[in-house]
Amino acid sequence: MKSIATPTRILEIEGLSARYGHVEALRPVDLHVDEGELVAVLGPNGAGKSTLMNAIMGLVPTQGQVKFRGRAVPRRAPAAAAGLGIVLVPEGRGIFAPMTVAENLELGAYLLNDKHEYARRTARVLAMFPRLKERLAQTAGSLSGGEQQMLAVGRALMSEPKILLLDEPSLGLAPRIIDEILQKLGELNRQGLSIILVEQKAPLVLKLANRAYLLSVGSIAAEIDPRTIKSHDELVQYYLG
Amino acid sequence: MFNLVAQSVLSGIGIGAVYGLIGIGFCVIYNASGIVNFAQGAFVMLGGMLTNVGMIKLGLPLPLAAIGAIAIVAMLGVVLERIVVRPLWNRGSTMFVMILATLAAQIVVERITQIMAGDQPRTLPVFTDLPPLRLFGFAINFQFLWILGCSALVIILLGLFFSSTKTGKAMRACSINRDAAALQGIRVSRMLALAFALSAALGAFAGILITPTQYTAFNVGVPFAISGFIAAIVGGFGRPLGAFAGGILLGVAQALAIVLLGAAFKNVAALSILLLFLFVRPTGLLGPAK
Ligand SMILES: Nc1ncnc2c1ncn2[C@@H]1O[C@H](COP(=O)(O)OP(=O)(O)OP(=O)(O)O)[C@@H](O)[C@H]1O
Ligand SMILES: [Mg+2]
């Protein structure tokens, strides 16, 4: 008998691995995200966090399976994954620096062909990040680091993702900007968006996350319930142990 | 003497515009993929040859034959991408290998054309068969005006395509960051095929514009490709407008070398310009593309 409380899986990953030449950057990993969850992926430099994100999207050659709402996500076809509603804000943001802020947002909605819907989404993103509004005609490369990260998130939201993957959005940003961005992500999550958030700075995200995976040398070392982590020290023990 | 020099500058501008269009073709593919497509010359040659065939064998009027030729060459561009470039691309071959493969494709197309169409030179009628215009003592022939007008139109249309259409913006996004473009749902391989189609069509168009003032034959492709390549380098590889300016510069320099130093100096002038830019200003007229 199925209980009402059984959460449905939006993303289910089985035995996903990736290698660069001879380097196995990701050993076969299993993980899942339930609808509406915010799942953190933690781990030190070189643990394979970015590789995991790129592997989910199919940006790198992989083995294993990624299922989105029960359907297999095609491998080596990031555009198709995006079409399903799996959207990654990559490490380093991947904004189109020589293009304008407006063009970047427009490309985020590349798969949309509805003018009214486009206007609605633009308005929503600009309401969320008002600073982008004043800079629509500026080239994206001329934005500050924080604004560029907002643009990267805003561009991803233009596609109205079903699940949003973010690879270290805090990288190189001032604490105040990081707080602002994380707060928006929390808001989006409360509105029902499923999120995978990659971070090195664990304390930042454990407050937001429903669950967390700890990656270490290409494998999942632990699955963490953030409520049980009393202190930062406890997490450090995971890293060491 | 002055008149002779001025007259040859004019004709240099005309042929230079054609080099410029070919150079833009190099830029379009380079921006989309990083590949320097040395089969570009084959597209130029086929533009003139297929238009000639359409008029003579099928009895088509020039505009129809030209449009047909451009469409066929654009499709051949896609075929080239599919059967030569993409298999190498998917296998992760180096740029060097892919560039060599386009050179091989150029030779194959040239030989097939020679077998099918023979080695006799062919030509096309001028687009407007009227005596040259007399303006300030210069003779301006109508084909020159066609070349300038058509290239200007092509450049404006291309500019609009890249700045105002979603597909054009997606192509630019691919040239800036291929992975990030794919993450937006842009099918990068489709954009690559489109770049080859566009570039092939540009080459064919250039070939059709220039053929009435010269001739075409199975082996005219390589010299045109080299001129277009120099134009692209002079313009700062990957900068379409720069390539066009570079083409004009090259055309004028060649024309001046011919009239002042003799026909033998045509290629000397071209290579001198290439070396000059490579040594003195390797980023080209407009600076680096990205
Ligand atoms: N393109 C590549 N070629 C070869 N090795 C790579 C490549 N990208 C990553 N690696 C290797 O794979 C391993 C995992 O890298 P990855 O970037 O996934 O780590 P990460 O957890 O995201 O680290 P960081 O926190 O520094 O971003 C590392 O050992 C790295 O050196
Ligand atoms: Mg990383």
Please describe the structure with a list of short key phrases separated by commas or semicolons:
heterodimer, A: about 240 residues, alpha/beta, Rossmann fold, 4-stranded antiparallel β-sheet, 9 helices, about 25% strand, B: about 290 residues, mainly alpha, ABC transporter involved in vitamin B12 uptake, BtuC, two-stranded antiparallel ribbon, about 0% strand, binds adenosine-5'-triphosphate, binds magnesium ion
Question: What is the CA-atom radius of gyration of chain B, in angstroms?
Answer: 19 Å
What kind of assembly state do the chains in view correspond to? heterodimer
What's the total number of strands of chain B?
Answer: 2
Q: Kindly state the number of beta strands of chain A.
A: 10
Bound molecules: adenosine-5'-triphosphate, magnesium ion
What is the string of helix and strand elements of chain B?
HHHHEEHHHHHHH
Q: What structural class results from the helix and strand content of chain B?
A: mainly alpha
Low-confidence stretches of chain A: none
Determine the mean pLDDT of chain B. Answer: 92
Shape of chain B: globular
Largest sheet of chain B: 2 strands, antiparallel
Overall pLDDT of chain A: 92
Ends of chain A: how far apart?
Answer: 39 Å
CATH superfamily membership of the largest domain in chain A: P-loop containing nucleotide triphosphate hydrolases
Name the CATH architecture of chain B: Orthogonal Bundle
Strand content of chain A: 25-35%
Structural class of chain A: alpha/beta
Q: Could you please say which CATH topology of chain B applies here?
A: ABC transporter involved in vitamin B12 uptake, BtuC
Give the proportion of residues in helices of chain B: over 70%
Looking at the structure, what is the overall shape of chain A?
globular
